[in-house]
Design a protein that fits this description.
- There is one protein chain.
- With 192 residues, the protein is mainly beta.
- Helices cover 5% and strands 39% of the residues.
- Strands 1-2-10-7-12-5 form a six-stranded antiparallel β-sheet, with no helix packed on it. Strands 6, 8, 9, 11, 13 and 14 form a six-stranded mixed β-sheet that branches.
């Protein structure tokens, strides 16, 4: 694996190191020791999959409150997605900034999402499928979210959102959310 830092401290993009021959390739997609050596939390307690029928499907922004905050490692295994994270750590110099990158079956890249970050993705292709490794079990009472179109975040999605759940469409704006009262988000760091 090749682990690359992003502009948001603690997060990373992970590329596979392919060992190829006439059969195809072999690659390690997760290694507890390599994660730990890179300062990433290697705890994995769940693996989840998500399938999406059409391009323009948005999932998120999701996060869980402490003590149930999650680390996630997201990989697109079919099609392509635009994956975005938002730093929710009030003491962080990148508080409320976002970073996005394309994850696809072709680039085989993964996004490492630290605890206390919100996460969302938008499908760029029909029949996009993702796999998540997660550090903490889903805890409904700890679940929260941010609006994908919140002007306070200023995320520029690369394609229009055509499908979104009622729950994800109705998360409160930062300006309406007591967890972020008085906060103002600086411009995102972009990426792709």
């Amino acid at each position: 694996m090749q682990i690359h830092t992003t502009p948001l401290a603690g997060s990373a993009l992970i590329d596979l190191k392919l060992l190829t021959d006439d059969r195809g390739f072999f690659a390690r997609s997760f290694c507890e020791q390599e994660f730990a050596d890179a300062g990433l939390d290697p705890t994995i307690t769940q693996c989840n999959m998500s399938y999406n029928h059409v391009a323009g499907t948005l999932r998120g922004f999701h996060y869980q409150l402490d003590p149930n905050a999650e680390v996630k490692v997201i990989r697109c295994i079919r099609g392509a997605i635009y994956d975005v994270i938002v730093d929710l750590r009030p003491d962080s110099p990148t508080y409320l900034q976002h970073f996005g990158a394309e994850l696809s079956q072709d680039n085989r890249r993964a996004m490492y999402v630290p605890r206390n970050f919100a996460h969302a993705y938008l499908t760029l292709t029909d029949e996009a499928e993702t796999m998540y490794q997660v550090s903490t079990p889903y805890t409904p009472g700890a679940e929260r979210g941010l609006r994908h179109d919140d002007p306070g975040l200023g995320v520029e999605w690369p394609v229009p959102v055509v499908k979104i759940s009622d729950k994800d469409a109705s998360w409160p704006l930062l300006s309406e959310n007591a967890d972020f009262a008085g906060a103002s988000a600086p411009a995102g760091t972009g990426g792709r």
